[in-house]
Amino acid sequence: MYLASTRSPVSGRGGGQVARTVFALGLVSLITDVSSEMVSSVLPLYLVLGLGLSPWQFGFLDGVYSGVTALVRVLGGHLADRFGRLKLVAGVGYALSAVSKLGLLAAGASPVALGAVLAVDRTGKGVRTAPRDALISLSSKPESLGRAFGVHRAMDTAGALLGPLVAMGVLWVAVGRYDAVFVVSFCFAALGVLALVVTVRDHEPGQARPAPRVLLSLLRHKGLRRICACAALLGLVTISDSFLYLLLQRRWELAATYFPLLAMGTSVSYLLLAVPLGRLADRIGRWPVFLGGHLALLAALLLALGPWAGWPVLLLHGAFYAASDGVLMAATSPLLPESQRASGMAVVQTVQAAARSASSVLFGAAWTVWGPEVALAVIAVALAAAVGVTAVLRPVRGQ
Amino acid sequence: MKILLAVLAVLALVGGGTLYVLNARQEVQADSVVTAVITPEQLPFRDKSGQVALAPRTDPGGQRTLTGLHCDRFHFAAKTAVCLRVRAGALTPTTDVIVLDEKLHERQRVEIPGTPSRARVSPDGRIVAWTAFVTGDSYATTGFSTRAGLLDLSDGQLVKTIEELPVLKDGRRYFAADVNYWGITFARDNATFYATMASKGSTYLVRGDYPSYRGKVLRDNVECPSLSPDGSHLVFKKKVADGDQPWRLYTLDLATMRETPLAETHSVDDQAAWLDEHTVLYGLGGDVWAVPADGSGAPRQLIAGASSPGV
């Protein structure tokens, strides 16, 4: 417990403890998320209306879109550690995504070309995530990691909220011109790369280069194995956003027109809670806050099923993200030696993401076979059980 | 020097993006005044410019008249036209269903969620029906769900989605949380209609009765049915393969329930239309094509740079 260090002596809102690099990376993520959310908010419209692809083809592209990230994430982390070049690898990731925005213009209506472009974009996202998170952790004091990740995630989410609004503005000015959306998105992405190059200082690798078999040695890392196991268990019982929103839409009899507002509600809550919950994690421990986030998700589920479904569901859902995403990275990084920071974080993120997509498939099947109420009851019980088990296992101690 | 370069790059990116958007704005054409009248001698369709255009039925590929009316989907029958148009600048995809008369004067407008997919007017022009794709509405994160609705112009009754239609399958009432409908087509009596119902990974042909609001599953693997002028046949797309050429056009004789594959071998993703009792029209690769309805002959390109043949 380092109470003294979390109370900042600097006046203002106590930002003195967060490293400049963290703010710089937050800025890069904010700008980049404006770029990527601009595109994802108009992509279905563009593909189906602009290009006349059938929704069936869209489904195929969407599958490519989400499948690539997990694979390349581990690769990105590994390369960054292997050559000790965190900023360079992250920069390549950001640059790939920027180039893919221009690729959207060039691909035309060919589903194959579009699939390739989207795969490049996702590759960029996958490659950059782990080295970026490693940079955040390496430029922060171990006792204020929760807050550092909280600041970064809050800025990141702000960009994600702005993106669709910017896209809407562009389409309002230039009606039906998706190419204008892609060009503006490219400009934002390029600004993000520029901000990275100019404002982010790379971490100086202090020790000797890691052995070539970084990944193998990580698999023998006991602490990492335990945190992966716990993240996987919790990921398997985590209900995905789309199911929760579908449930809410039915409960509230919400016109489908307003459906995307649900995701915005979650994002606003995430944005507001990321820093406070990150600080709380620094103070009372990261694993308790991580588990608390899953309890918030459980509470959101129960509220949504009960008669009092309302905006607190979205508040709790945002709290779940604020207490689980950055906090898990803050919990993981002290376990890892500096030279294996990016690869280790990539492994944890990939395990969690894979478990969550498996959960989505399983839950979808349960929803179809048993109906929504039974499926939700089952996942709620499983979530409570998993929180109990991982509270006993407690893979991270003494933080 | 470094800072100067960075500042220049920022200026170039911000300026370039802004200029591109402003330039794109100038190129957008305003909706010009609509003056056309659709007569029985004309074949309306959607020109590649996005406007509804008219061509002589005797020579559809010949001189076309642009009407200035912009639509994403269009259909016309007996003095009633329906135009589906996605609303620009809406926070979430929203479509206007615009009902017009034969002079293309607006009669009524309905706002629905989603993006335009199919549009149909019943043979005597009394009922308009549509399908829209809705994103984010389905628990399946990949892909779309669809919503089909209809508007009875005689009494103004609006059915925003026919999802709640009570349907019998194998003699029992069918219940499922994931029911989706698309591609409604009405018969001459304004009572019988056909549509595709999808549930649990299969598609079915449903025959509905509008006055009693009941439906029945007739067979499976039928999408986007379209009823022939005399009501004896349906043309539909049938899923014949996985991969990137999934559909083939078939006709179904409603008396014998016999299917006939049409001569078009390309995968067609459209709700086809009937030019007459013997000829089926459909959009493919940005052009409108025609093929004999009895499975004979070969497809021929009817109108280049066109979609939504409105017959």
CATH-defined architecture of the largest domain in chain A = Up-down Bundle
Main beta sheet of chain B: strand number and arrangement? 6 strands, mixed
Residue fraction in strands of chain A: under 5%
Kindly report the average pLDDT value of chain B: 89
How far the N terminus sits from the C terminus of chain A, by CA atoms, comes to 7 Å
Total number of β-strand segments of chain B? 26
Weakly predicted, low-confidence segments of chain B = 137-143
Largest sheet of chain A: none
| Proportion of strand residues of chain B | over 45%
What is the tally of helical segments of chain A?
Answer: 15
Give the mean pLDDT of chain A.
Answer: 84
Largest interface: A-B, 56 and 53 residues
Order of helices and strands of chain B: HEEEEEEEEEEEEEEEEEEEEEEEEEE
Instruction: Please tell me how large the radius of gyration of chain A is.
Output: 21 Å
Helicity range of the residues of chain A?
over 70%
Number of domains of chain A: 2
